[in-house]
Specification:
Elements: H1 29-37, H2 44-54, H3 57-67, E1 71-75, E2 81-86, H4 89-101, H5 106-109, H6 116-127, H7 135-148, H8 152-162, E3 182-185, E4 201-204, E5 210-220, E6 226-233, E7 236-243, E8 254-259, E9 270-283, H9 289-323, E10 327-328, E11 331-332, H10 337-365, H11 371-402, H12 414-420, H13 423-426, H14 431-444, H15 446-457
Parallel strand pairs: 3-6
Antiparallel strand pairs: 1-2, 4-5, 5-9, 6-7, 7-9, 8-9, 10-11
Bound molecules: flavin-adenine dinucleotide.
Residues 183-187, 191-194, 218-220, 262, 265, 270, 423, 426-433, 436 line the site of flavin-adenine dinucleotide.
C-alpha cells in the first residue's frame, strides 16, 4: 500500500518504514551458521525459499489470521450438530505454506539425510516468526509420528497422509483427503500435569476398537483429522487415536463444547471437548499410555523451544529495524550507547536460544543411533524448554520497549508477540514440571548427567 508523508498539518518524518518483504533466512546469519554447524546445510535452498515467504506474504497472513480469529460452529442453522471451526482464509494460507515447506513433517520426509530434525527445526523457526498460533497443529502433527509407529497398522494408514506436502482443510474422512494433521488430548479439568487423574474411559469393543466417554479441558486444533487421546481402559491409562470421522464415514462423537478465550494465540483454536462414545483405536500397549504419548511430548517440548526462540528472533528483528531508523537526541537510537547495549544483550540471548535449540534438535534426531545424544536429548530438552520459554516474555518486553509507544500498538507485531510469549512456558509441562523432570533424570538416569556435563565441558 503506497503511503504519503505529506499531511496538511505536518510532515511524517523520523518514523521507520514497516518491515516487509525480507528474506528471514538470508538475513539471519546465526541461523545459517547453526544449521550448517549442526549438519543440515543440505537444506539451504529449501530454507532460502521458505525464508522469502516467512518474511514476505506470510507476515500479512499472520495479521489477518489474528484479526479474524476462528469461530465455533457447534450447530447448523436448524440445530443439528456440526462441531466445525471456521477459520479466516489467511489461516488456511499459513497452514498451506507450513505444510508445503514441512513445518509438520520435513524431518520425516528426509529421514535418511543427516540432521533432518535440525533442518525441520529451521523450517519451524522460520515459519513461527510471522505467526505462532498455526505452529500448534504443525508441531503436534510432527510429534505424533513416533507414537503412531508403535502400532504399525495405524502408522501404515496415517503416515502417508501426515507426510503429504498438501494441506487439505476439507471436513472429510481421512481416506478422501490429500493430507492430514494430528493433535493431542491429555489435559482434563481435574489434572493436566498429573495425568494419572484422567477420568475419560475407553471400553474395548468386540472388534478390538474402543468406545470413549469423557472430556478434555484443553484440546487444541480440533479440526485436525485425528487426536492422540489418553483414556483409562481396563489395564490403566492408555493412548488412543480418535479420528474426526468413524470408519463408516459419519462424524465421530467428539463434541466441541466451546473455544477457549485466550490471552493470545488467537489464530489457533483451542477447544474443550466431550467424547460421547467416540470411536478410538489403541496406540501402543494398553496401560502404557503415558509412555506412548511421552515420545510425542518430547518433540512438542523441542518445538516449544523452537517457537519461543523464533518469537525472540522476530522481536529483535523488529527492534533492530526500528532503532536503525529512528533518531532521538541527535543520533539513531541504535547508535546511542545504552540502546546499543540493550540490542546487543537481546541479540546475544536470542542467538544463544537458537544455538541451544539447534544443538538439541540434532540430539533428538540421533536418539536411536547414539546413546550420548539420546541422554543429552532427554535432559537438555527439559532444561532448554524451561529456560528459553521462561525468558521469552521478558526478552520480548525489552524489545518492545525499543520501539517506544509503537511497540504497544496493535498495528505492530510486538503486542501479538508479547501475548503469545507466555504460552510455551505453560504448555507441555509448566516450569516446575520441567524442573522435576530434570531432577528425575539426574537421579534416576545417571547417563543423562554424564552426557550433560560432557557437553558443558566443550
Ligand atoms: C493455549 C493452550 C493450549 C493447550 N492445548 C492443549 C492440547 O491441545 N492438549 C492438551 O492435552 N493440553 C493442552 N493444553 C494444556 C496444558 O498442556 C496444561 O495446561 C499444562 O500441562 C498444565 O496443566 P494444568 O493446566 O492442569 O495445570 P496443573 O497441572 O494444575 O499445574 C499448575 C501449576 O502447578 C505446577 N505443578 C504441577 N505439579 C507440581 C508438583 N508436583 N510440584 C510443584 N509444582 C507442580 C505446574 O508446573 C504449574 O505451574 C493447552 C494449554 C494452553 C494454555
Amino acid at each position: 500500500m503506497a503511503a504519503t508523508n505529506q499531511f496538511n498539518t505536518h510532515e511524517v518524518n523520523n518514523q521507520p518504514f514497516t518491515l516487509a518483504n525480507y528474506n528471514a533466512w538470508l538475513t539471519d546469519i546465526a541461523l545459517m551458521e547453526a544449521v550448517a554447524r549442526e549438519g543440515a546445510g543440505w537444506a539451504k535452498d529449501h530454507l532460502i525459499e521458505f525464508g522469502a515467504r516467512t518474511g514476505g506474504d506470510m507476515m500479512a497472513s499472520g495479521f489477518l489470521a489474528n484479526e479474524n480469529p476462528p469461530k465455533l460452529r457447534a450447530f447448523d442453522s436448524y440445530g443439528r450438530r456440526l462441531d466445525e471451526v471456521e477459520f479466516h482464509p489467511a489461516y488456511h494460507e499459513l497452514m498451506t505454506a507450513g505444510v508445503r515447506y514441512g513445518m509438520n513433517n520435513f524431518a520425516w520426509r528426509n529421514e535418511n539425510r543427516e540432521s533432518a530434525h535440525v533442518a525441520r527445526a529451521a523450517v519451524m523457526y522460520l515459519g513461527s516468526q510471522p505467526e505462532a498460533g498455526f505452529g500448534c497443529p504443525m508441531s503436534m502433527s510432527y510429534a505424533a509420528i513416533p507414537a503412531l509407529r508403535h502400532t504399525p497398522q495405524i502408522a501404515e494408514k496415517w503416515l502417508p497422509k501426515l507426510l503429504s506436502q498438501q494441506y487439505d482443510p476439507r471436513s472429510l474422512p481421512m481416506e478422501q483427503k490429500l493430507g492430514c494433521t494430528m493433535g493431542m488430548g491429555m489435559t482434563e479439568k481435574q489434572g493436566g500435569s498429573d495425568l494419572r487423574r484422567n477420568t475419560t474411559r475407553a471400553t474395548r469393543q468386540e472388534d478390538c476398537t474402543y468406545e470413549i466417554i469423557g472430556h478434555k479441558w484443553f484440546f487444541s486444533a480440533p479440526m485436525c483429522d485425528a487426536h492422540l487421546v489418553l483414556a483409562q481402559s481396563e489395564n490403566g491409562l492408555s493412548c488412543f487415536l480418535v479420528p474426526r470421522f468413524r470408519p463408516d464415514g459419519t462424524k465421530n462423537a467428539v463434541r466441541i463444547q466451546r473455544l477457549k478465550d485466550k490471552l493470545g494465540d488467537w489464530a489457533n483454536a483451542s477447544s474443550e471437548v466431550e467424547f460421547h462414545g467416540a470411536f478410538g483405536e489403541l496406540v501402543g500397549v494398553e496401560g502404557r499410555g503415558i509412555a506412548t504419548i511421552i515420545e510425542m511430548v518430547a518433540l512438542t517440548r523441542l518445538d516449544c523451544m523452537i517457537g519461543s526462540a523464533a518469537q525472540m528472533r522476530q522481536a529483535i528483528v523488529q527492534a533492530i529495524h526500528h532503532t536503525s531508523q529512528r533518531e532521538a537526541f541527535g543520533k539513531l537510537l541504535i547508535d546511542q550507547p545504552i540502546m546499543r547495549n540493550v540490542i546487543a544483550d537481546l541479540a546475544l540471548e536470542s542467538e544463544a536460544a537458537l544455538a541451544l535449540t539447534m544443538r538439541i534438535a540434532r540430539a533428538v534426531g540421533m536418539i536411536e543411533s547414539d546413546p550420548h545424544e539420546a541422554a543429552l536429548a532427554r535432559i537438555a530438552t527439559a532444561i532448554g524448554k524451561y529456560w528459553i520459554c521462561k525468558r521469552t516474555p521478558v526478552l520480548i518486553n525489552e524489545a518492545q520497549e525499543c520501539l517506544g509507544g509503537n511497540g504497544y500498538v496493535e498495528e505492530n507485531i510486538m503486542p501479538r508477540l508479547y501475548r503469545q510469549a507466555p504460552l510455551n512456558s505453560i504448555w507441555e509441562g509448566s516450569g516446575n514440571v520441567q524442573c522435576l523432570d530434570v531432577l528425575r533424570a539426574l537421579n534416576k538416569e545417571p547417563e543423562t548427567r554424564d552426557a550433560l556435563f560432557a557437553e558443558l565441558q566443550k
